[in-house]
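Let's do one together. I've listed all components of the complex below, 869 residues spread over two lines.
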Amino acid sequence: MAVAAGRPTARTEAENPLSEGLERLPPPPTALVIFGATGDLARRKLLPALYNLAHDGALPERFFLIGIARKEKAHEDYRAECEQAIRRFSRRKPDDDVLKALLEDVKYVPGTFDEDSVYAELHRLLDEFEEQASEPLNRAFYLATDPSFFGVIVDELGRSKLAQHMHAEVRVIIEKPFGTSLEEARELNRRVLAVFDETQVYRIDHYLGKETVQNMMAFRFANGMFEPLWNRNFIDYVQITAAEDIGIESRASYYDKSGALRDLIQNHMLQLLCHVTMEPPVSFTAEEVRNEKVKVLQAIPEPTPEEIPEMAVRAQYAKGHAGGEDVPGYLEEEGVPPDSITETYAALRLEVDNWRWAGVPFYLRTGKRLARKLTEVAVTLKPVPHLAFSQAGSLGVQPNQLVLTIQPNEGVSLSLVAKIPGTRMAIRPVNMEFLYGTSFLSQSPEAYERLITDAMRGDATLFTRNDEVEAQWRICDPIVRFWSSTPEEMANYESGSQGPEEAERLLREGHRWRAI
Amino acid sequence: MPRSDAVWTAQGTTPDAIEAALRELLVQRHAENERYVPARVLNMIAFVDREWTGEIANRLRAVGRYSPSRLLVLAYEPRRERLDARVTIVSEGEPDAGEFALLRETVVVELGDRHLDDLLTIADPLVVTDLPTLLWSPHGHYDIVEVLLALSQAVLIDSIDEPIWRDAIDRACKLSERAYVVDLAWLRSTPWRERVAASFDPPRHRPELRAIERVTVRHHPASTVSGMLLAGWLASRLGWQPGSLVARGDELLGRAHASRQDVALRLQSAPALQVRGLEGLTLATASGRELSLDRGPGGLRARARDPRGVERSWTIPGASRGEGGILGEGIRQALLRDPTYVPAVKAAQAMLP
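Okay, and this is what the predicted structure of the assembly comes out as:
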């Protein structure tokens, strides 16, 4: 129920006095159901994340796991597969006793996702688990399947009356990509929201689970020195880069249908842009944070076909060198059609048309087989209006740049200009660096550990809301459509390089891409 | 694997010379490879008996990534006349391309009685300015702790280590008035506190917190303090007024006044427990619900009995952190603030027999 603004919230006896002072509180008793339980995501990320939560004693007091996938197999066989995946992919060596305790309550349901019998069996197992626990269990349905099954599974959950529980919370966790176009995203949202309430839906963008992405808000809103500069008056342009040095590896079937724009820009990079540009939320609740992010996305104009050639560039990697070895071009990769028009590099110039950011270009670029792996946000300040001393003997005087690095070295670097020691007033840029590793003792939890815990706990702050997803698609969809209709305009770049030369045309005068 | 990168030693030295050597070694390491960067999180001062320096070094080695950025070990040998020092700068390994490698500094200063009057002037130049400092004196030396508190924001203790457990609680209370206290005995109880808090967290179970009428805590025979702290935590969080406990055999018995009813408190020694700390606890409510948590393979063994008398048991997975993990957690906690320790230890003090 909505509470009127300004009205004090009553303190109820329902508050738990024992939770005070504890850094974490294990989530309430939960049954987690993984659809696509034998897939790559489940094996490489979800099961190891669950093990690590178990190792740290961070799983719910009563925790049950059900895996659903097509192949016929016995519960014991699935447990053995889980064990194998955890032993192979866990970030720490598993403790045999903990692993055994975790796998004790794991069950498996074989079948296709549109089979009524699967959901009947699921219903039966969930009831059985509740009986075993002697109390209602929250239910979390994790859709880790091919995206084409998301709608079917949600429909079936609704039809089999699994989407609601009289005495416990039911949540659905949906992996990315959430649709491959605006139309698909809207249709999927329609189907999901016909069965679940928005408060039950947790759309994953695992970037949001990364500590450094979350820390961007702390950096901006807890440090008084940046906020006065954080606007069009002082910031010249912003560059967001997500570069990978690897190719598509064994993901040709997925990647060729997706491409760089849909794979990274539509979700992760627009989320980074939101974190850089959003207004301070009233509070850090899920709704307030997401309200502010949606406002940013809504302030980005939808690109028109006339504008797209000037504000978007795509390219495919050609053969070249990576890691000291010769590597093939995209079209020579196994599983890629020789006439593929899927981009492996995408760069955009976007504008955020609001009071704070009007006129500031935001350059986004992502690509595979680039010079190195790097994710960063670089904010370039406007140059000083006048340099009072001679620049003779000075080296590369540049405007100040603030770089927030997300990987590989999480940190913040501020480029300043300093005098070169000597008798002359010569200056050169120097860096003031802060590295997270030097200032914290703790290791960041894996993004999936954080996100699974939050979903089980009912905290949606790090998940994407329906209007947010659609707003992201509204920006990318016209570009996807335009590129599909102009297949002949695909640029190339050498593997291991900085990307295509064509990306230069996005830059306004005086701006330049940072070296990857 | 950490490896020793740079070492400087001197006999009959001064704090100034040691500090200069630290600076020089850091400059050398950075000049060698600019990707070597010193960690700047926390100073730790350890005042230890010189003959046990090796044992303390082994314990600190086990804390892994929770190592302090700069560790100053003041190794005390009563009759020592000369100030000797050894500075070691260790990197976590070679930095990979595009990455950096952290440097951690250890300064061991060997000193004697004659240096104690000037201890602050020896230690002060050797801690990194502006970083929080954690003080640890694992071999007692309470008078020295009093002196070094002037340089420290937090003090690390292990109440279990005190020979007389009653004194440990009094001392923890007293210390916490002067500095932020990180008590390893308290940190050993964290998983228990998390589980108890989580058990009563679902809204349908929260009202039962007010109906708790019996608490039994089982602990290692040498870890009575752990039991007292856990009982003190429950009392302070739930607003109970505890009275003094009475010793009966190897048990401590007593009562606390809650708003609805009295709560029977029982601390039982568990001689079979191989490790220090808690073995288990049982909470019983007026409605007849009972919850027990006990150590078991792979986690905590939970046993619940509902008001109808139906019993269920299961395992809550979790791995032991080991003593290295506990000490590491203690170092990490020096950077945080837990507002519930002081009320818990004060409630424990009120329960002292």
